[in-house]
TrEMBL record:
PANTHER family, per database record: SERINE/THREONINE-PROTEIN PHOSPHATASE PP2A 65 KDA REGULATORY SUBUNIT, TOG DOMAIN-CONTAINING PROTEIN
Source organism: Brassica cretica (Mustard)
Top-level division of the source organism's lineage: Eukaryota
Name of the featured protein: Clathrin/coatomer adaptor adaptin-like N-terminal domain-containing protein
Lineage, broadest ranks: Eukaryota, Viridiplantae, Streptophyta, Embryophyta, Tracheophyta
Coiled coil: none
UniProt keyword annotation of Nucleotidyltransferase present: no
Protein keywords: Repeat
């Protein structure tokens, strides 16, 4: 397996063509690997588009939202907020909003803050579309 710092550098430079290679790191129990996967998804999602984001990335992000490490959860909230303009409104309402509502009840104040910010973004996007 490629070291995470090399993989992220390759991803930034556009040299990583296999998303599975990145997503495989989710199984590593160390929270920094999860953080790297979340960062990688944040870089790949705008380029890959809605279909791949929904089929490959959203399940990983949803699973990460159940992590017990607050830093992972606040980064999940930030990532979910960045996915709002990428995915369809139905996905936002069906999947993303529910994860953010769950994160908004987290015991950590920072997680709740970023989840609340993302929920506001959903509401603002809905108002703008009306």
């Amino acid at each position: 397996m490629v070291p995470t710092y090399t993989l992220l550098a390759d991803l930034r430079a556009g040299r990583c063509s296999n998303t599975a290679e990145v997503l495989d790191m989710v199984t590593n129990p160390h929270y920094l690997h999860m953080m790297m996967v979340l960062r990688a998804i944040s870089l790949m999602a705008p380029v890959m588009g809605s279909e791949i984001t929904c089929s490959n990335f959203l399940l990983v992000v949803a699973e990460a939202s159940k992590d017990r490490v607050p830093n992972v959860n606040l980064n999940v909230a930030k990532l979910l907020q960045s996915l709002i303009p990428i995915v369809d409104h139905s996905v936002v309402e069906k999947t993303i909003r529910q994860r953010l509502v769950d994160l908004n009840e987290d015991p950590d104040v920072d997680v709740r803050y970023f989840a609340n910010q993302a929920l506001r973004s959903i509401d603002d996007a809905a108002v703008a579309q009306s």
